[in-house]
């Protein structure tokens, strides 16, 4: 890993609060419950999760954040990494003396979340390669001339493999004449980098195993965690935040991960990790420690100073005992591990310890001096997070979506079988309807065509929501981690899904049309097939919209009937729409089922003659399906589908922009310029004073 510019993250009086429902007061009923009133408003109060934190995380060091459950460790990390935005933040944050925020820090930092979200059908090796391709590390990302794209034998780097990384071809290289060679070299570099990360994180054994999820077992929890760390490691971000990177790992793996964090920090990077119960060996590898309790700092400083500090509070650490355990048991819980004490005891204890730290300790003074006199090295653009060009994102994501679909082959097979099954079912139920009496023909054709319109629309919705709901969380996490932009993701989903949405209705139409005995006419068969296709595509758009709007399948299934049943009721068969309740009649104009059904009915019945008697046109008048032609009805299905498709895109856009911490919303360019600018003048003076450069006069 390359050495990097040292970045010091400092914060002063950093507080974070959320609004929570107020606890009952004396105004409430005696039993503590508030009397319900239609005019009463819920009362909210501020809950402070972090209170007046002042501290700094130094470059080239591993800082561990320790503290009891609920002390605010994850919140602090999320706040600094720009992923916490539900509440109100006050205080100041700086990076190398430049004013910063969580949003701007996100441009510099990699973040390993507590819950690793990786696409379940990806293999470990693919997940790491994806990170290298889509978030190229500095050396890999600078656009180069084609000649310099590959330079394995560059004498300038002395053959050092770490300096010999191959640049992935910039977007233009994929299009130029020699694209194949450059692509293969770029691919070679990625393979090389992936192999290095796999070896470093002990993942070679499982590199070709899929990540898996709760429904399909893949790699183990520890391997998953190490894969998530490796994904961030390969980006070579100058700052790395990790939320419980060792939880769920065995002692050996946890120690291995801590060693790797130490190695990363040794390249000048700032590594901050929330750790739960570090072993003595892990503890020895940590450089700095922050202990939090009830959202306040109880200790922040060098690891070696922790034991001495708690001894000054009256808690000497016995020989051979683990200092981390000692701090938890003796200091934070007052030595009586069997008795947790009440919540107010814990709060009072935390207040005492935090006050002792802030008001009387030398350590807090040293921290304040560090905050006042920070590292001021310039922040240049090479340190910011990069993404690959949209063309490469699209190319990669399309390939991944295709592989994902292939690996979920069972789902595709079921969908294909379903199309054939329903085609066969409807065909056999209404077999050879054209030979039946006219009244039976009318009823059977109308029923079969209505069923066709409904199934084509509904099955498509269900298949999309099923697939996409699983991927939604992955998309949000990957988008936030800077892997790709929404346009590339949305386009790749459509490129892979659309052919399936065309093939399925063709299978259905080919089977059902001839079995049903609809009019023997190639043109009419084509119209029937096209109507099935557009209904499928329209269903696909509605499925995307539902999956983008709602977080999980349960919510979607609760919302689906509210949207679908009015479409069904006003689909043209169940209600004579021309004579329905006037103020509800508009529903027919937004029902894709109605347009699809009407197109198919007109296709079958206009000019339909049985035994020389024209029966079709009079029937169409009777059922009152409106004056629009077949073509206009098909276009209307397309228009509704396109509107739903655009709404799905906007819903995803809203999902990604949600929250104030998003760098894009806060204008990444502006944030970047602030960080690249000069340090806060107060630090310049502070540093001069510290160096004795000021004139006392
Ligand atoms: N949005 C929120 N609304 C209400 N309370 C919250 C919210 N976010 C966090 N909290 C509360 O803030 C406290 C700190 O949460 P946080 O997740 O930071 O703790 P933690 O130290 O990381 O705990 P653990 O070690 O168990 O993961 C908890 O009591 C939690 O319930």
From TrEMBL:
<dbReference type="InterPro" id="IPR003439">
    <property type="entry name" value="ABC_transporter-like_ATP-bd"/>
</dbReference>
<feature type="region of interest" description="Disordered">
    <location>
        <begin position="674"/>
        <end position="697"/>
    </location>
</feature>
<feature type="transmembrane region" description="Helical">
    <location>
        <begin position="630"/>
        <end position="652"/>
    </location>
</feature>
<dbReference type="InterPro" id="IPR013525">
    <property type="entry name" value="ABC2_TM"/>
</dbReference>
<keyword id="KW-0067">ATP-binding</keyword>
<dbReference type="GO" id="GO:0140359">
    <property type="term" value="F:ABC-type transporter activity"/>
</dbReference>
<dbReference type="InterPro" id="IPR050352">
    <property type="entry name" value="ABCG_transporters"/>
</dbReference>
<dbReference type="InterPro" id="IPR027417">
    <property type="entry name" value="P-loop_NTPase"/>
</dbReference>
<keyword id="KW-1133">Transmembrane helix</keyword>
<feature type="transmembrane region" description="Helical">
    <location>
        <begin position="498"/>
        <end position="518"/>
    </location>
</feature>
<feature type="transmembrane region" description="Helical">
    <location>
        <begin position="525"/>
        <end position="550"/>
    </location>
</feature>
<protein>
    <recommendedName>
        <fullName>ABC transporter domain-containing protein</fullName>
    </recommendedName>
</protein>
<feature type="domain" description="ABC transporter">
    <location>
        <begin position="9"/>
        <end position="319"/>
    </location>
</feature>
<keyword id="KW-0472">Membrane</keyword>
<feature type="transmembrane region" description="Helical">
    <location>
        <begin position="445"/>
        <end position="468"/>
    </location>
</feature>
<keyword id="KW-0547">Nucleotide-binding</keyword>
<keyword id="KW-0812">Transmembrane</keyword>
<dbReference type="Pfam" id="PF01061">
    <property type="entry name" value="ABC2_membrane"/>
</dbReference>
<dbReference type="Pfam" id="PF00005">
    <property type="entry name" value="ABC_tran"/>
</dbReference>
<dbReference type="GO" id="GO:0016020">
    <property type="term" value="C:membrane"/>
</dbReference>
<feature type="compositionally biased region" description="Basic and acidic residues">
    <location>
        <begin position="688"/>
        <end position="697"/>
    </location>
</feature>
<dbReference type="GO" id="GO:0016887">
    <property type="term" value="F:ATP hydrolysis activity"/>
</dbReference>
<feature type="transmembrane region" description="Helical">
    <location>
        <begin position="416"/>
        <end position="433"/>
    </location>
</feature>
<dbReference type="InterPro" id="IPR003593">
    <property type="entry name" value="AAA+_ATPase"/>
</dbReference>
<feature type="transmembrane region" description="Helical">
    <location>
        <begin position="556"/>
        <end position="575"/>
    </location>
</feature>
<dbReference type="GO" id="GO:0005524">
    <property type="term" value="F:ATP binding"/>
</dbReference>
<keyword id="KW-0813">Transport</keyword>
């Amino acid at each position: 890993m390359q050495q990097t510019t040292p970045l010091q993250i400092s914060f002063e009086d950093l507080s974070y609060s959320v609004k929570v429902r107020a606890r009952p007061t004396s105004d409430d009923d005696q039993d503590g419950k508030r009397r319900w009133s239609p005019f009463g408003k819920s009362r909210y109060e501020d809950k402070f999760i972090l209170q007046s934190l002042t501290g700094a995380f130094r470059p080239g060091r591993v800082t561990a954040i320790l503290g009891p459950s609920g002390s605010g460790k994850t919140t602090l990390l999320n706040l600094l990494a720009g992923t916490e935005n539900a509440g109100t933040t006050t205080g100041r944050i700086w990076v190398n003396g430049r004013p910063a925020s969580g949003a701007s820090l996100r441009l510099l930092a990699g973040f390993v979340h507590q819950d690793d979200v990786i696409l379940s059908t990806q293999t470990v090796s693919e997940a790491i390669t994806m990170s290298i391709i889509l978030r190229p590390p500095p050396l890999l990302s600078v656009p180069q001339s084609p000649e310099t794209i590959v330079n394995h034998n560059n004498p300038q780097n002395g053959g050092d493999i770490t300096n010999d990384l191959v640049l992935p071809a910039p977007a233009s290289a994929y299009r130029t004449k020699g694209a194949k060679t450059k692509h293969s070299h770029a691919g070679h570099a990625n393979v090389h980098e992936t192999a290095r990360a796999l070896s470093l994180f002990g993942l070679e054994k499982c590199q070709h195993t899929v990540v898996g999820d709760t429904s399909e077992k893949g790699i183990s929890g520890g391997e998953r965690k190490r894969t998530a760390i490796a994904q961030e490691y390969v980006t070579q971000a100058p700052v790395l935040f990790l939320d419980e990177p060792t939880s769920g790992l065995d002692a050996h793996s946890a120690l291995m991960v801590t060693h790797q964090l130490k190695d990363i920090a040794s390249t000048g990077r700032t590594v901050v990790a929330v750790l739960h119960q570090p072993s003595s060996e892990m503890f020895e590898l940590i450089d700095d420690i922050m202990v939090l309790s009830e959202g306040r700092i109880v200790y922040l400083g060098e690891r070696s100073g922790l034991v001495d500090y708690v001894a000054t509070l009256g808690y000497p650490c016995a020989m051979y005992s683990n200092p981390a355990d000692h701090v938890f048991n003796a200091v934070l819980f007052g030595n009586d591990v069997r008795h947790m004490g009440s919540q107010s005891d814990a709060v009072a204890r935390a207040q005492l310890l935090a006050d002792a730290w802030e008001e009387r300790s030398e350590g807090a003074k040293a921290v304040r001096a560090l905050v006042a006199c920070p590292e001021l090295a310039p922040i240049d653009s090479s340190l910011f997070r990069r993404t690959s060009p949209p063309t490469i994102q699209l190319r990669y994501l399309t390939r991944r979506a295709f592989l994902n679909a292939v690996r979920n082959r069972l789902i595709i097979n079921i969908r294909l079988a379903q199309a054939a099954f329903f085609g066969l079912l409807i065909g056999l139920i209404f077999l050879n309807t054209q030979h039946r009496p006219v009244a039976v023909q009318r009823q059977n054709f109308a029923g079969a065509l209505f069923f066709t319109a409904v199934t084509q629309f509904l099955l498509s919705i269900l298949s999309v929501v099923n697939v996409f709901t699983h991927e939604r969380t992955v998309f949000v996490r990957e988008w936030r981690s800077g892997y790709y932009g929404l346009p590339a993701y949305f386009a790749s989903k459509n490129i892979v899904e659309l052919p399936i949405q065309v093939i399925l209705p063709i299978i259905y139409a080919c089977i059902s049309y001839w079995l049903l005995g609809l009019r023997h006419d190639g043109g009419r068969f084509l119209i029937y097939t096209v109507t099935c296709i557009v209904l499928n595509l329209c269903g696909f758009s509605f499925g995307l919209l539902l999956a983008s709007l709602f977080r999980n399948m349960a919510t979607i299934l609760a919302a689906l009937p509210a949207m679908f049943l009015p479409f069904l009721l006003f689909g043209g068969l169940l209600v004579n729409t021309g004579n329905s309740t006037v103020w509800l009649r508009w529903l027919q104009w937004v029902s894709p089922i109605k347009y699809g059904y009407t197109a198919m009915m007109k296709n079958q019945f206009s000019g339909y003659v049985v035994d020389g008697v024209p029966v079709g046109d009079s029937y169409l008048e009777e059922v009152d399906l409106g004056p629009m032609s077949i073509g206009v009805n098909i276009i209307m299905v397309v228009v509704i589908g396109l509107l739903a498709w655009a709404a799905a895109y906007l819903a995803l856009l809203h999902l990604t922009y949600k929250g104030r911490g998003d760098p894009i919303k806060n204008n990444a360019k502006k944030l970047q310029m602030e960080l690249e600018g000069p340090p806060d003048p107060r630090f310049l003076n502070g540093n001069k004073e510290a160096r004795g450069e000021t004139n006392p006069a």
